Amino acid sequence: MKERLVRKGIPFGGKLLASILLLFICFSFAMKLGAAHTSWQDVWLSLTGSSKENILILQEIRLPREIGAMLVGAALAVSGAIMQGMTRNPLADPGLLGLTAGANAALAITLAFAPAVNYFGIMIACFIGSAVGALMVFGIASVKRGGFAPIRLVLAGAAISTFLFAIAQGVGLYFKISKDVAMWTAGGLIGTSWGQLQTIVPVIGIGIFIALLLSRQLTLLSLNEEVAIGLGQNTGKVKVTLFIVIILLAGAAVALAGNLAFVGLMIPHIVRAIVGTDYRFIIPISAITGAIFMLVADTIGRMLQAPYETPVAALIAVIGLPFFLLIVRKGGRAFS
User: Fold this and answer.
1) CATH code assigned at 120
2) Which of 15, 171, 277, 319 pairs with 105 at a CA distance of 20 to 30 A?
3) How do residues 61-92 score in pLDDT, each as one tens digit?
């Protein structure tokens, strides 16, 4: 069991330091690369508080965007890892199980009925929508005995996600806000501001912190719920808390970047191949790896057709769909 929980070889501390170093390198290149030419000196000055005009462009446009990319990647990766551990479902992902679709529908309704709402109000709406979407999926999947089987849960998620996306599009067409809704649902980080980050950083930070605190309990749940109960764990309380964490992380990610599927599916599988199945290691490495993945995806999206942008959601889907099919083919053990 111990060999299964922890991958032998490089100690966890070494893997953590290596992932942090890789994150720093990716962040540095993400700050430098773009349609506008910038030097390494410009990047350094933007991080040290220079007030030159060309440096202010980096500080007000590119820096908040890349910080937002890291936050969204970390939030989606950690929420996906928690979902896979709780349900013991290798196909679990916020984008596949109704959370992001619910958040998008709630966002469209909010823009239609309260167009003057501030960013905090939009984020609250996304939280509520995520919860409703997830409850609908799990409710439908649990109608029959054995409803939480991976394929049944994914099919329920696909049906509910399609329904909720249709609601979002219908609201957009009826209230003539289709352009605004489409900009959110397309998935992207263009226009990320410091004000948005001030609202979203505490939510994602608290969510990941709680996930770290409950990582040991999540490990037991992911292996065997009966064992967890036998060891005195209040599984009901732990599940409710983790479910709230998933809603906070997924809702905050959608409020900032729109619909981004597959990130929460891919990253935990890759991380388990590196650190094993102990969630005390999976959660922190997933957060860092998710941040790296989103930084790289956003940078490619900006550079592929510069000065025009390629939607980052499309780039992720090109990678994510084959990954999803591989996991299905391997029965959830593609990287085990």
Assistant:
1) 1.10.3470.10
2) 319
3) 889 999 999 999 999 999 999 999 988 888 88
